[in-house]
Amino acid sequence: MKTILITGASGFIGAYLAKHFSGEFKVIGIDSKEPITKICEQFYKMDLSNITTIVDELNKNKIDVIIHTAAAKSLNWCEQNKSEARKINFEITKSLYERFPKSHFIFISSDQVFPGNQQYSMETTLQNPINFYGETKKLCEQFLLSKPNTSICRTAMVVGPLSQTHKQEFKRIRENSKIFIQSYFVQHILFKLNKNQQISIPIDEYCNPTSTNLLYRQIRSVIINQVFGITHCCGKERISRFEFAKKIARFFEFSDENIQPIIDENPLRPKDVSLDVQKTEIKLKLSFDDIQQILQCLKSEGVYSESLF
Q: Over the stretch 124-163, which tens digit does the pLDDT of each residue have?
C-alpha cells in the first residue's frame, strides 16, 4: 500500500482528499489545526515551517506521494501581507519538495495564475497574475516545472460537502448577503434561498466550478497514471458565478428571484479565469464533469443538509 502525505489536511480540500484516499492508500495528514473528527491514519498538528523536526519520522513510512494543498488563500490577505504570503505559499513549497525529492510531488495550483482577460486558458498559456496570491502560485509552478516527479494541478472554484470543522465556520458567516468564502458557495446560496433572503453574486466573473469529488478523481488519476507537468483539474464547463448560482437554485428546486446580479469592483479578482481541459482529459483518461453532473454529485453527497440551516 502506497503512503500519501497530505498537507493542509484539515482544510476544505485536504480533509476531503484525506477521507477518500484512506483505505486505498495509507494517508498521513499535516495541518496547523486539529480536525474535529479523525480524517486519516496518522495526523501531525504542526506548522509546515517546522516539518524538519519530523522528516526522519516521516521517511520511515517511505512517502510515495505528497499532495500539497496547504496555502494562504485569501486574495486580500496575501496582498496585504506579501512577505508572509510568499513564505507560506512559495518558500514552504520549495522546502517541502527539497526534503522529499524522490516522492511524487502534487502541487495544488490555481486559475488565479491567469489575468482573466481571455476564455479557456490552456496549460501552456502564459501566466500573468493580477494578484499576489496568483503570483505565489506562479512562483511555485516555475520552480516545480524544472524538477522531476512533480505534478501541477490547477483547479478552480472548488465546492463540496463540509466537514464538521467547516460547518462550524460556515455557520458564522452564512448570514452575509455576499459570498466571501468560495468553498461555501453552494451552501451559502442554499441557506439564503431557504430563508427567502437575497444574495448578491457577480455577473461578470467566469470560471470552471469544480466539485471536491471530481478533484479527488482527477488527482487519483494523476497518481495512478503517473501524470507529470501541468494539468487543469477542474470542471469542464465555463460559467459566470451568477449563472452558476441560478443553476444551483433551480437544481435544488428554489426560485432564483433572490439571486441578485452585481458587478464586482474588486481589482484583485480576474474576470475570466476559465480553463481549457481537453488535453488534461486525455492525459488523465477521464471525462470531466459538467455543471449538471457536479450538482448531481453534490446532491448525492448531502450538500443540501438541514443541519446547515
A: 999 999 999 999 999 999 999 999 999 999 999 999 999 8
Cα–Cα distance for residue pair 213/297, rounded to 1 Å: 8
pLDDT at 306: 57
105 and 226 co-located in one domain: yes
CATH number, domain at 151?
A: 3.40.50.720
pTM score of the predicted model: 0.97
Provide the domain limits for residue 12.
Answer: 3-159+209-237+273-289
* DSSP string covering 35-65: -SS--SSEEEE--GGGGGGGHHHHHTT---E
Regarding whether 128 and 52 lie in a shared domain, the answer is yes
Residues (pLDDT < 50) of the chain are none
Amino acid at 126: L
Tell me, yes or no, whether 56 and 77 share the same domain.
Answer: yes
User: According to the model, what pLDDT value does residue 237 have?
Assistant: 98
Q: How many domains does the structure of the chain reveal?
A: 2
86 and 214 part of one domain: yes
234 and 156 Cβ atoms separated by less than 8 Å:
yes
- Tell the burial category of 204 from Cβ atoms under 10 Å away from its Cβ (0-12, 13-18, 19+): middle
Domain match, 34 and 19 both:
yes
The shares of helix, strand and coil residues in the chain, as percent rounded to the nearest 5, are: 40, 20, 40
Q: Which three cell numbers stand for residue 2?
A: 502506497
Grid cell listed for 204: 461578470
